[in-house]
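[job 4417] fold queue: 2 targets
>>> target A
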Amino acid sequence: MLGYLGPSGTFSHQAAMEWSQGKEELKEFPTIYSAIQAVQNGSIERAIVPIENSIEGSVNTTLDTIAFDVDLYITGEYILHISENLMIKKGAKKEDIKIITSHPQPIGQCSKLLTHEFADSKIEFADSTAAAAKRVCESDGSVACIGSPNSAELYGLDILYADCGDDTNNSTRFVVLAKNQLTQVSERDKTSIVFAIDNTPGRLYEAIELLAKEKINMIKIESRPMKDELGKYVFFIDIDGNIDDASIYFALDQVRRNTYFYKFLGSYKY
């Protein structure tokens, strides 16, 4: 069973359907945290959760939960193109629209369309794109929403403006979390770790230098608060390659030896 952030019709639901390709039963959860915890306590086998958006950046809830609250591995990732669509009730027209609703993020990502085409419409925020679509379905035609093509299909809506986001390159990276690590080497692997170091000059450089000496390509580095004390941070790093590669294994072992908090988050195909 594969968990995802619900309700049905959200982009997380779309990612779960596309990644599973109908081969797994899906189960929705009200929060990212609850979906991840369901894997930890054994209620479901896996969860697919958002970890990074190309416009908004990292999803901090996901990063913090996998770093501090659970012992799970990233076993895969899926990149979903975020196609924002302005949708209306079947039979409604553009001139009928008085209110436009959605989650705050899609509203912000469609500011150009809303400014140029719907300057007189009232903007109202919803808990999710699916909740907004449900409201449009139940409305008298005066309410429009922004969301995924999947929610238009689920709630029987017409798409008035397709792929109407300000940035057509908007994508979200999802990761699949499970209790068991899969380290089978493929032609294109990524390894993720998180660690903390003493707050002294040069310590971060020394940790990263261990990777550079082995000519290991670092894809991403990001810091997050350690949460137990102001001014202390953990560092998330993604590198090219699989931990089953000897050079990567020994380089990461050296990183582990030179940090006071270290967690291997997984090697997986991407």
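>>> target B
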Amino acid sequence: MTAALIIAAGQGRDRRQIEPDREVGALSAVKRCVLTFQAAGVARVVVVCGDREDGRTEKLVAHMNVTFLFSSDAGEMLDSVKLGLSFLQGKCGDVLIAHTDVPLFQVETVRALLEAGGGLCVPVCGGRGGHPIRLAAGYIPEILAYGGSGGLAGALRAAGLARTEVPVEDPGILTHIQDRDGCEALLSAQREPRLRPAFRFQLMRDQPFYGPGAHQLLQLTEETGALLDACRHMGISYSKGRKIIANLERQMGCPMLERTRGGKDGGASTVTPEGRALIRRYSAFCEEAETILTELFRQYFEP
């Protein structure tokens, strides 16, 4: 499984702070990145934000099944990359790494990176490499161990990774958000987005009770071992998370979590065998249903 890591905190070009809320066309930079990855079929998207108390970035991509990580200090962009890679280590096979200062890369570019072989894949347009890049998860420890001052590029060089260039006809991989004229020209030149289907599957009895949000909450609780941490990663309150789980348990007629009280931090939470079975069955159902419905969409809308 390939995950996407979007850096929305830290210092980018010329030591300026990354601007995830800068509007690019009709969308914020961070939302444009999330939508592009999801349109390319990347289900797991992680966004590294600034201080949690700010909350602006989470609001821009709320209800989009994004996992949020919070960087307490807005230092080098590499610090944010390391935070994201530490979280994703052991959870995926490859990581697509992008930052919101280069938000105009295309769906076709992401798909080309997904199909390419190699441990480090870089899209190239007009002889120049750009963003996002794809990194095999096996190289994450080497990036995390880097202590130099060369940023992500320096970490990749120090790791000695062979670079696989992926040719693309996509100047968006090179267009920086500070280049206002370049962004406007690129947006004007782009074709109208291709028509595509979007699916959201829910389980219900008298009303819906399990869909993408509850599914993500249960998955993150299993990974982190704490409902409180899962809520933080989703950008929702602990009380809301408890209500979601309580409703789920009521509708399913069995416990989804086993809880250990732990004071102000909410204690530990272990997903029950019934909860893990629900995660597996829902994931498999969604994957198969999307395949079938995508083919049906092609029959009706792509003659």
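[job 4417] complete. Note on B: The chain has a mean pLDDT of 89.
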